[in-house]
Amino acid sequence: MSVTDEIKSRIDIISYVQRFVPSLKKAGRNHKACCPFHNEKTPSFVVNPERQTWHCFGACSEGGDLFTFAQKIHGWDFKEALQELAQEAGVRLRQQTPQQRTRSDELERLRGLLASAAELYREQLLHPGANTVLGYVRKRRGLTRETIETFQFGYAPDSWNFVLQGLSALGHSEDEIIDAGLAVRNENGRVYDRFRNRLMIPIRDERGRVVGFGGRALSSDDSAKYINSPQTALFDKSRLLFGLDSAKATIRETGTAVVVEGYMDAVQAHQAGYRNVVAQMGTAMTEAQIRRLAPRYARRIVMALDADEAGQSATRRSLEVARQTLQRDFTGRLSIDIRILQVPSGKDPDDFLRESPAEWGALVESAQDVADFVIDMETARLSRDATLQARQQLAKDVLPILIASENNLYQRENVQKLARCLRISERDLLAWSQREQPQMPGSGGLVASQDIVPPEADAESELPPPEYWDNEDDTVPRDNGAGEGSAQTIELAQFRAIEPYCLSLLLKNPDLLSQVNRKLRELAGNDENLLNGPLCDLCVEDFTGSQFRILMAHLQDAMSQDEKEPLDYIGAALAGELHAEYRSLLSEDPAAIRALSQGTYRVDLQDIYSRSRGGRIQGDDLQNELINRALRLRLERLEHERVEMQYLQEEASSTADLDHAQRDQLSQKIMLSMTAKARLDLAVT
């Protein structure tokens, strides 16, 4: 038994959830309550004690197991949830190696040092000797005392050793202060403060821990208006977004992240009540920053960079990064809506927010579509009598951005716009765009494939029969080699056994995740409700085992970066307690994978491996095998979700829990799930 399963066997999810959701009550075979993660008047949050899972069938549409609930309710990452729940369950976790423990201690000491530095700078700003600086922040920058305290602004005095002396007095060495990026050692060996006579703005990571600083010059003699901490073990500005720790909750609620250029832009937005704003801390968005936002928090990114030439240039580069990110993203997880906000009169967001804070919300809502922005911006450079060659070259420069989306309908519409603006044959642009975008087997390029039409509605798809749901557990048991048990237990065991097999194939062949996701998109066609719902990309929600969910999340993260090979990335990022499961999934031995499903589904796994010659399937056979198994996995997930929705609907009807609008919404979700099931049934071999 894995450590996560052992923890879940000792902590019942119903009891745990009830601590934070006291209104959770038994309703039929499930427990339900109003969702703790969004405001609602009638219950759509369901906890299933048999599967030890939870799911919100309302606005959240999120779900998971004990670990995901603990992470979401407390804001923990997986490591924190594992440590806290293990302690509560009395499960002993594997000890860190001496090297890991030493490194962890070093990083924690650096974080403590930076937190102390932030406090030293803050105290200095509030010192009577810094009244001029405080006056600048209050009057010139228009920040309230509350905002100054919230963002912990500080002041680095015009001294060569202010922070050196302060931190040394707390027991930190010169080397530690240098490693934290707060001091510099010159070629003569002299050590001195990096930040002098600057307004200090602490930069925090996603969890709110200080990892570096931005320093704003207070003297016109300084050559650089802003300087940041150098790259350290904790600070990498290309991977950080200023203000994300404060903004992430609002970004998740609204689904929209607004990205500005500088710290003050973000601070002014938060002061005005717009808490979904972050700053990129550089001249252009990076791939890591885009992935930091989407899809975990945002499905829509509004870029609100400065209106000057430098800001426009940064916008161009950011869009190019977004395009490359989309092309390299094998999982397709960044199918997001990117829009461009242009502040009127060429003002910076900081200035606009100080002068017209009430108008910012409408400005964000009216942000321009990327295609329109790119076409307008690039064609503005052409003279009215531009040659055909010049127009063709511009088209070839612009097309890659316009076709970055995988939505064929929007691609074609964008190409048509460009053709009209450049007075170039749409047919030629379509041909160029098809050559530009990567082709997959069976892909028709830009030409939209026909929507897959589900079979004519049968009795099940027209009216969900109550008898089916009432007798859902009357499944014929199979001999699975695991002894006798209820049909429901066997069904769940079989479902869980597909999980390690699919994950094993994905880990050994990570690039094939893109093929699974393309198949799901193909089945969804142009139906956005299916694309964003029951036929979305393969994800952690398709797995029930905690260890498999975590490994799937790591696989998705691994495919979202380019610094390491996927397996190297996962091995380095994975908590030590899960390395045994990880190695088993990479094994060629079916017995190792079968052990992860606790010995169940033996006949099926043996059959799979005998047909696949010991697990070494090749080429198209491997791709088809994985797609087929992944679709079965999705079918099982939809079946369980649909059953729970049906029970919720029946219970609500009998107790008048749901109002008319919510009942309609639940019915629509059930019918959407049935449509997806019909398409999956056709595709599964």
Structure characterization notes:
- The two termini are 32 Å apart.
- The protein is globular.
- 53% of the residues lie in helices and 9% in strands.
- A 5-stranded antiparallel sheet has the order 1-2-3-4-5, sandwiched between helices. It has a 5-stranded mixed sheet with strand order 13-12-14-15-16. A 4-stranded antiparallel sheet has the order 6-9-10-11, covered by helices on one side.
- Helix 18 crosses helix 19 (426-436).
- It has 5 domains: 3-89, Zinc finger, CHC2-typedomain (DNA Primase, Chain A, Alpha-Beta Complex), CATH 3.90.580.10; 111-228, Alpha-Beta Complex (DNA primase DNAg catalytic core, N-terminal domain), CATH 3.90.980.10; 244-366, Dna Topoisomerase Vi A Subunit, Chain: A, domain 2; 377-436, no CATH class; 460-683, no CATH class.
- With 685 residues, it is α+β, with helices and mostly antiparallel strands.
